[in-house]
# Entry
Amino acid sequence: MKVLVIGGGGREHAIIWSLKQSPEVTEIVAAPGNGGIAALARCSPVDTNNLHQMVNLAAIERPDLTVVGPEVPLALGLVDELQKRKLRVFGPTRDAAQLESSKAFAKAFMQRHQIPTAEHALCTTLDDVRTQLARFTVPVVVKASGLAAGKGVVICNTHLEAERTAAEMFSGVLLGTAETEVVLEEFLTGEEVSFFALCDGRRAIPIAAAQDHKRVGEGDAGPNTGGMGAYSTDGLLTPAMRQWITHNIAQKTVEGMASERTPFKGILFIGLMMTPRGPMVLEFNTRWGDPETEAIVLRLETPILDLFNATIDQTADSLVVRLKPGASATVIAASGGYPGKYASGKLITGLEPNEAQNEADKEDVVIFHAGTALKDGNLVTAGGRVLAVSAAADDLRTALDRIYTRMATISFEGMHYRRDIGWRALK
Ligand code: AMP
Ligand code: GLY
# Structure
């Protein structure tokens, strides 16, 4: 069968690497792919912000299955368009993807269905913000409602700062585009956990829990990034907690979406804060996480293709998701300057362009590419997050030791990475 994978980051490399392990998959087209994916798939250049380009490609390729990686194509309605053309596609429709693409929708949805989340107020004007702020103590969280690539959340220490932040969101100064809706939110404390559940419109099946490291610097210092590393272990959640979250958050979300006639099919990635009051939802994402996926696929024993098929065919009920016991992790090597301005085109040394082509034993280090490109046969940097060096092992310490040993042999000008991924679990 032929599979089209939309996207070109470390997450998509990990999905493709995983798909390759199913013998039924005979051909993969990646759009746009990257320098590492090129060793596993045919790369076809598309702009993932351009719905027409993606639909046209699918219409030409006629894949047996399309997997949509990033959030923007989901929010643009790529799944709806492919379904209209009778193509099999993994991911939520545009309406269902609102759980991620509109924080205003997600917050109101959680309120309607009694899903635990922070208190909030939805504001459409600055006057609204001023009035509603009186209900909140500081710190208070100010969120842009729409997709903001991780830049739409600001924790404010005074009401004045919150007002100023909201004003900058409405005017477009902060994010480049003017927001029409801003959400004020109660500040929660606790440890953050990412919870991944496969949803077929009726059932939510837990896959794995992971922990991301969003700040650029060690000890969680410095500005937010797309994620500098992640790990997944069974110890992140007790079996009882995992069951509680599955039942009271994931399954409730699936049932709520079905009852509102926007059934959710795809991966529900629940960003949780483990507060003293219990787990509360910080945000929903309607896709796999990046870099969490690079760690999770190394633990996944059930073929990822089975996950996709069970979702589309609504047979998640009879799906058994097996995870390798132990731990897995991924550490991001980033370009100098990231998450701010960075240069591209830097020569990467220390790895073969097609290293991840090997159907590596899952114990080995696997290097997933994020922002890389092939230039005159050489591998060069082509993004902020460049490589996701990943491994699974019996325990987290061993997985991380393997990763950092391998990382030390890789270099490109300006390369930086965090040396403390997994610190919460190891302390
Ligand atoms: P989000 O994009 O909504 O996940 O927010 C990005 C990050 O902001 C989260 O990973 C949290 O670290 C932080 N955050 C978001 N909402 C809250 C909240 N209500 N209280 C405390 N921190 C939050
Ligand atoms: N790692 C966070 C995300 O994928 O949004």
In short: Residues 239-259 form the longest helix (21 residues). Residues 212, 227, 285, 289-290, 292 surround glycine (ligand 2) (CB under 6 Å). Confidence is low (pLDDT under 50) at residues 357-363.
